[in-house]
Amino acid sequence: MEHEDYYAMQEKYIAPVYGSRGLTIVKGEGVYLYDSEGKKYIDCFSNIGVNILGHNVKEINEAVYSQMQTLTNLHGSFTNDKRSLCAKKLIEHAPGKLSKVFFCNSGTESIEAAIKFSKLATGKQEIIAAKMGYHGKTLGALSLTKTLKKYNEPYEPLLEHVKHFSYNDAGSLKEIISENTAAVVLEPIQGESGIRVPDMDFFVKVKEICENNGSLLVIDEVQSGMGRTGKIFAIEHFNVDPDILCSAKGIASGIPMGATLITEEVSSKLFNGCHTNTFGGNPMACAASIAVFDTIKKKNLLKNAQEVGDYFISELKKFDSPLIREIRGMGLMIAIDLKTKSTKFAKDLQDNGLIVIPTGSTVLRFLPPIIFSKENVDEAMEIVKKVIK
Ligand SMILES: Cc1ncc(COP(=O)(O)O)c(C=O)c1O
Q1: What lines the ligand 1 site, CB under 6 Å?
Q2: What is the widest separation between alpha-carbon atoms in the chain?
């Protein structure tokens, strides 16, 4: 069967909630994807950051396959070797005083847990997030998300007691925060709104404002975490300790998993049944996540993300096209902001063998796997130069 056949089946049987990229992808290998006709694409998409180690990764495959043959799922009321080891691994790599893990299956679920835990820990109800921030689409997380109106408006009213301030403007947070604020929820680098890297002192100011109001700082590392920016968690670049940290996407490099990391102080306010999740912390996902951490270390991938990311950004900056407004990014989280709409260029790049993510109206977002090499950058740059003249 060909792309058209699979597409027709998709149209018939799958809920119409995604725009179509016009390709049937059937295989992935390293930093490459292959379509149903055998055409090869450089993957600067990684399923929006999920396949952090690329595709068909020996270490992940072995860990998952071996765990599948042992035990796939186990409810949280029983102890499991892989779950305990995975939690220990996460905490060993977590910044500041984060000391315990709540396991779930996705980014939006990790945010739901963070919202509930913040309310429990502080006894307050109000949550503040940033304009142009993205935290997921379940109703709680969606109340914090503020990117496209079409995401929120049909479902309003959403959560009560939610306010938004301008990202990278601590002064505007100070104006709206109060002693009723349970938490301020922020991405270290805004991803969905086009890779917005804040000033280096932004988070230090935010943390101080939170402390002055008895509010928690929740950091959403769903897209920026797991080595993408050259540190396991991007917030490490900004010298602040979060009270809660949300992770997902790359945490198990393709196996569904989410995690909400909390401090001892937050943990002390939780109780049996306050929030649970049937699949959360299943041994298969935990085995994959342990393999992700071990592989990042074994292959020195934090350094790679930093060095190859710097190289990618500098090559993009050297490329002087009148169509480009700005190049932004940190590590392998990179954006080309165009002076014109980006959708057509994303399509042209794809037709030429490079998959990126059109974001907002003018941005092309690059989230390649962190195994990306300088040679891969050169290969991608050749296509970029050809398409964005
Ligand atoms: C920063 C951030 N938070 C939360 C989410 C939601 O994650 P998921 O789609 O796994 O629910 C995303 C997804 O793009 C994200 O980028």
Answers
A1: 48, 106-108, 111, 134-136, 187, 191-192, 220, 222-223, 248
A2: 62
108 CA distance to ligand 1 middle (Å): 6
Q: Are 160 and 182 in contact (CB under 8 A)?
A: no
365 confidence band (pLDDT: 50, 70, 90):
very high
Q: What three-state secondary structure class fits 79?
A: coil
Report strand pairing: 333-338 vs 324-330: antiparallel
Residue with CA at minimum distance from ligand 1 atom 16: 223
Instruction: Identify the CATH number of the domain defined by range 60-298.
Output: 3.40.640.10
What are the Cα distances from residue 379, in Å, to 26, 83, 372?
A: 22, 39, 11
Pocket test for ligand 1, best of 47, 48, 108, 277 (most atoms within 8 A of CB): 108
CA dihedral (47, 53, 56, 60) positive or negative? negative
Contact predicate 304/371, CB 8 Å = yes
Tell me which residue of 140, 87, 118, 126 sits closest to 269, measured CA to CA: 118
Burial 172-210 (b: 16+ CB within 10 A, else e): ebeeebeeebbbbbbbbbbbbbbbbbbeeebbebbbebb
Q: Quick check: 2 pLDDT over 90?
A: no
What is the residue extent of each domain of the chain? Answer: 60-298
> pLDDT, tens digit, for every residue of 229-240?
999 999 999 999
What tens digit of pLDDT does each residue of 78-134 get?
999 999 999 999 999 999 999 999 999 999 999 999 999 999 999 999 999 999 999
Distance, CA of 226 to chain centre: 9
Among 281, 316, 309, 312, residue whose Cα is nearest residue 90: 281
Strand partners, 190: 196
Index of the ligand 1 atom closest to the CA of residue 223: 16
Q: Which residues contact 228 (CB under 8 A, 6 or more apart)?
A: 49, 52, 234, 250, 305, 331, 332, 333, 367, 370
